[in-house]
Design goal:
The chain has helices at 8-14, 30-40, 80-83, and strands at residues 2-5, 20-22, 60-64, 67-68, 89-93. It is an alpha+beta fold.
Length: 98
């Protein structure tokens, strides 16, 4: 099982308490995890990735194993600790301003 931690506003939208556990078939990548997340919680479609090109929204960041994975290609394998469920994939809403 893959563990995903969502920011508070997406947890409220999806009506989940804390982290989400997902069954992901095939390679464990950002794309496959987000596909599984959106399939299980359709209300999240378009909140993490845009509807058209499926690109990460500008103020959304991905972290795992103390690494910022936000700029990785969507089909790059996630760290082994995420693939085994030892560590979660953390999705955060970034802030802007001065």
């Amino acid at each position: 099982m893959i563990r995903v931690v969502l920011p508070a506003h997406l947890r409220r939208l999806a009506r989940v308490a804390s982290e989400v556990q997902l069954e992901v078939l095939g390679p464990i990548t950002q794309r496959s995890v987000l596909d599984a997340l959106e399939a299980r919680y359709p209300v999240l479609c378009g909140t993490i990735r845009d509807h058209g090109m499926q690109r990460r929204r500008p103020f959304v960041r991905f972290f795992a194993c103390q690494q910022d994975l936000s700029q990785e290609l969507p089909d790059t394998p996630l760290p082994e600790a995420v693939a085994t469920g030892a560590e979660p994939l953390v999705i955060l809403g970034a802030m802007a301003g001065g």
